């Protein structure tokens, strides 16, 4: 069985990154239920479980019977399972950086800038530019999350965010993205290094969910894999 405390720390940091008004976390004995109260990234509810045992899945189905359709994330050391009642979406890797080693100095190329998004108008402009929910303008003044954008010669080229959970001493990096036209120029490293430098004075560790594409970069930056994360969508949702 995977370490439940690490999973809970990730879920809490992940939720801080996505929190909207009325978001709730319900910790049941066998799973964690995140209830957003509005659509966030295609769902209103998500269930997180530690290994997909049949009895756990049955408990989830009974619990969610009267709820909205939901997504299911399974933390596992194995490969994705063929769950007939769910549609497979994606697999990621849960990774942790203990923030023990000194961080490399950031060396950005000329014309490259990583900037904190601290203005509602700027947040809206970036959302429109990328046609995505990059930064929530309602949360610009929140102290537990920071959104960043990468600019190359004044044009947006990528984005990322980091949340802080002082009670646990854990930061969570999230939504790291570099536009395809700018990849291969080290922008991802510059962006992630900026976030890690922000995390180190405030946190004992930094946690994230890595895509296959991002995995080599995160390894170079000191992150270590903990387990797989398999994401499913309830069939018919």
TrEMBL record:
Record-given protein name: GNAT family N-acetyltransferase
Organism: Paenibacillus profundus
InterPro entries: Acyl_CoA_acyltransferase, GNAT_dom, Trichothecene_AcTrans
Domain N-acetyltransferase: 101-237
Top-level taxon in the UniProt lineage: Bacteria
Annotated PANTHER family: GNAT FAMILY ACETYLTRANSFERASE, N-ACETYLTRANSFERASE DOMAIN-CONTAINING PROTEIN
